[in-house]
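Example complex used in Figure S2.
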Amino acid sequence: MRSVGWAERLPVRPRVKGLIKHEALTGYFLISPALFLMLVLLAYPFILAVYISLSDRILGEPGKFIWFENFLKLFQDKFFHETVRNSFIYTVSTVFLKLALGVILALLLNQEFPGRNLVRGALLLPWIVPTSLSVLTWLWMFDSLFSVINYILLGVGIISKKIPWLGDPFWAMISVIIVNTWRGLPFFAVSILAGLMAIPRELYEASDVDGAQGFRKFWHITLPLLQPVIAVVVLFSTIWTFADFQIVYILTHGGPLNATQIFATMAYDVALVAGRIGEGSAISLFLFPALLIVIIMMLRYLRRD
Amino acid sequence: MKRRRLRIIKRVFGLYLPLAAFLFFALFPFYWMLISSFKTNPELYSLRAKRLLIIHPTLEQFKELFKRTAVLRWLWNSFFVSFFTAMISLALGTMAGYSLARLKFPGAEAFGLATFITYLVPTTLIFIPLASVVKSLRLTNSIWALVVTYPTFLIPFCTWMLIAYFKSIPKDMEECAMIDGCSRIGAMVRIVLPMAVPGIVFSGMFSFTLSWNEFVYALTFISDTTHKTMSVAVPTELIRGDAYFWGELMAASLIGSVPVAILYSFFMDYFISGLTAGALKG
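Predicted assembly (587 residues):
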């Protein structure tokens, strides 16, 4: 049988059918290691998270079952209210900024110019480099005394007084938003660029015949065709930003005055710094509804295509 | 002449100036990291000097860093963890990805869906209970805690990426190989894997990068100086209370950033095509 060549494959199709019987076995065999690991280290911890959040566990003591007390306590907690508000401000504003700037950047990168590949590579750097390390650089750039951003802005004459970047509740939120936008923009730009490059040229040529102009072309042809890419990118970014930790942890640690505290940083502080593991677990579970919404929207989107 | 000038003006304002602004925004922090790590302390903390330039370049900060801290150890830990977890996840992800892309069996679709969902689960959702799982496995304060837990977010990523790659490879070739006497696994190893090399290289590299950059688990599971990875060691070990050694901090950040930047510059084309394939397909 080994000598059967490519051309004669049709008559022997039934043999392939025979192999299919083994397929199920092979299939289960191939996914079992991954499945095992995911069950032990993802599914089990998730169930554990629910269990812990219903207990008053503190560091070093198992605690007892208290039903929804942690959640009820959080609903009345002023700090938690601020955390919820901050998380929404942080997510909505950064996703909006990343999307708007991402579309502009993608449109720029879609044009022909010398050194385009180099520029594209350079623009991706913020997304590749370890976030904790690049955010340290931002921390240094926002330094209360030696801020190079203030140095430049003062030098150019845009501001006349130093901006207290991380020392003031309002500016601290602006700072974390700027850094998150800086880090996430490349992902938006590159994904949207890929969407742009997939649009057939003929569509634009047809609209040239109809006499459509620049912005109208963008609004009526480009944007509708980019919609699927934009939806996926926005959904991804929403859950990542909502659950973000490192940027806030390193830049402001949630401060000043709780002004930049978001779910993950508060969960960390309550569970691992203050040692109230049950309550901390309840806080991080608030990320779950957001995750669920993103999953549902994403699945509906993918099904439709 | 007038039309040509108009075109140049349009090109400058419509392309080069905004692009320069984006490049400045993206790259200035790296420039600042770079020059801060080659400055002397008096120059770093002077409000008068020309701050955007280096007047007296020095290796002082690096020397201090290597003398005072375990930076080489942290680098090694990062390499070890990233390499191992990338390899494990790539192996398991390839197996799972191939099976979900090619084989028909009850539940295959549900598993594909589950892969996608776990791909979206943020680490901050489960880091607290995972810490107690790690503790009961007696892995707290060991880099093995990271080797074991990182695959939980790398495997779904690799699997999802590779499903797309495997699906783009025509079925005919492996069917032929199987008719010629190859087993299913044999066909996968000899025919499909060689054709999926770009996808495998991208997934492996990106997994390496994700491990190298991971922060939340490494911060939670490890508190011993000697077992930390770069991404956690630099912000936690070099900042003590209110004392910031910015020269050393920037030098260490540079050292921790360069490996992934190099890796990425060598494979940029893989990176961009892989990234866009992933973004478009899901």
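Chain B touches chain A through 98 residues (CB under 8 Å). The first helix of chain B runs from residue 2 to 37.
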